């Protein structure tokens, strides 16, 4: 724990999100004390987060807490380097939740581990094995480290982020993690909730897939248009509550999961078009784990969105269209004993260090 002069913090963009990265040893050990401190650091609650690091949007009100791993050996047999706890903070509401992972913030964990000396960089490229504490799942991040330093420059462009940066490959061990305990948590590919057919799926991000047309949408509406549609948002929230109960998630009135994803036919040569509610704001693109979950959810025949999708040939990327472009992932799903299992999940992201120094939390209210 740092002294009164400030707390060491590294602010990073990971994928299409931005967050504050901390060593666990430099935050209070008690979760309640830690969360209270983080709310003051991020400037929550306040719609503008004017008195903290938060960027007035759920995508920029995120925290990563990292420590040397206590997870031992992964299911694939390799040693795990670091533990990563993701925390989603509210913007205008004072809450901190660990009920979901974040694959975009995950893209910065490997570089952060090298920056903080938790992992020694190699001469060319470094791989960091990461245990995602939220779901006890494992991913390996690989990125350039010429001369033993993280190279944030590079030629990879990802839609939703201006310019280019160094690539970070994220490879998950089969499934990208499931907080609900199954790829299809209800045990069915399709459920009928309040007269709407849905698919409940969780390949790292508990999600509810719906056909946009079933809710009177075309699926190509802008995030601003969807956020302004109060009737749609009310209906989605009713479906979300009912779907969460079917998924065994209980009361989610104060939770950020499950996410709600409207699906429609691809328009730009991809596999499927998406509009993601997270769950009340609309994502300007789509998250890493959200993309992996959508892909896994629409692959099985009979699932919502399968008939809308233009599924890729074997070995080709699964291209998910979103409001600001597309996101390519690599996902495999196969039937096994009456259910479905994920055989591979991988994605390519970028990350960039924005500042490294001391952050000064606002005074207690």
Automatic annotation (TrEMBL):
Keywords: Isomerase. Gene3D superfamilies: Diaminopimelate Epimerase, Chain A, domain 1. It is an enzyme of class 5 (isomerase). The keyword Isomerase applies. InterPro entries: OMA_tautomer-like (IPR047687), PrpF-like (IPR007400). One of its GO terms (molecular function) is isomerase activity. Its EC number is 5.3.2.8. Belongs to the PrpF family. This is 4-oxalomesaconate tautomerase.
């Amino acid at each position: 724990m740092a002294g009164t002069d400030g707390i060491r913090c590294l602010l990073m963009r990971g994928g299409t999100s931005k967050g504050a990265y901390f060593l666990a040893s430099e935050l209070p050990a008690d979760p309640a004390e830690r969360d209270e401190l983080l709310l003051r650091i991020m400037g929550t609650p306040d719609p503008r987060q004017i008195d903290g690091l938060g960027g007035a949007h759920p995508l920029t009100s995120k925290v990563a807490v990292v420590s040397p791993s206590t997870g031992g050996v992964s299911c694939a047999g390799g040693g795990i380097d670091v533990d990563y706890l993701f925390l989603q903070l509210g913007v205008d509401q004072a809450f901190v939740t660990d009920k979901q992972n974040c694959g975009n913030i995950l893209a910065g964990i490997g570089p952060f581990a090298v920056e903080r000396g938790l992992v020694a960089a190699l001469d060319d490229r470094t791989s960091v094995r990461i245990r995602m504490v939220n779901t006890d799942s494992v991913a390996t991040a690989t990125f350039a480290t010429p001369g033993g330093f993280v190279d944030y420059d590079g030629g990879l462009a990802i839609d939703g982020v201006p310019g280019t940066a160094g690539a970070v490959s994220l490879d998950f061990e089969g499934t990208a993690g499931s907080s609900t305990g199954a790829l299809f948590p209800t045990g069915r590919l399709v459920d009928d909730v309040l007269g709407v057919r849905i698919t409940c799926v969780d390949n790292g991000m508990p999600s509810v897939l719906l056909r946009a047309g079933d809710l009177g949408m075309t699926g190509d509406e802008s995030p601003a248009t969807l956020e302004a549609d109060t009737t749609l948002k009310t209906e989605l929230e009713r479906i979300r509550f009912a779907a969460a109960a079917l998924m065994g998630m209980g009361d989610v009135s104060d939770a950020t999961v499950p996410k709600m994803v409207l699906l429609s036919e691809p328009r730009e040569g991809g596999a499927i078009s998406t509009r993601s509610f997270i769950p009340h704001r609309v994502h300007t693109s789509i998250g890493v784990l959200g993309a992996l979950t959508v892909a896994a959810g629409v692959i099985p025949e009979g699932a919502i969105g399968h008939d809308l999708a233009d599924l890729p040939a074997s070995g080709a990327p699964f291209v998910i269209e979103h409001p600001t472009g597309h996101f390519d992932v690599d996902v495999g799903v196969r039937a096994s004993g009456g259910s479905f299992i994920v055989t591979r999940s991988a994605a390519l992201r970028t990350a960039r260090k924005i500042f490294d120094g001391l952050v000064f939390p606002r005074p207690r209210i």
